[in-house]
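User: Could you check the structure of this?
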Amino acid sequence: MPNYKRYYIPNSMVFITIVTNKRLPVLIENIDLLKEAIRTTRYNFQIYAGVVMPEHLHIILSPENIEEFPKIISSIKYYFSRNLVNAEINRRESQINRREKGVWQRRYYDHVIRNEADLNRHLDYIHYNPVKHKLVSAPIEWKYSSFSKFIKVGLYEKSWCNFEDKYKITEMNLE
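Assistant: Sure, the predicted structure tokens are below.
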């Protein structure tokens, strides 16, 4: 198994993608549980931006202590898994032996935000994601996203995501 190296740059934000095991679509139907899992973690952080899709989520975290972001993710995944009921989950024997619920993929993608251009690129990716997955035709239509928050503070227009915007965003693949 590869040895993954995480980078910790103090006072940075981190873009994170978390995916359910076998892309099980349980997140939207359990959105209140996911929110509770985020609220109940004991670590100090802010979610700067995010989008929840049926089987994955993208968030930009701003942790008080950058080295705690893996613990934050672990805490959210653990709480959600432990409290999820009535989900049809087929676990492998290795998951059963490790006492894993089998809700999440073991690993997740993380990227430390390096500068303002990098942040804006990841914000665009997050807010375009429901359109990319053909769940809506415009980002404003997806209610499980921070897009409306960014409209309120003037960082996006309601009509954002014209053809030129889509072309730039579709070149990114962060899942």
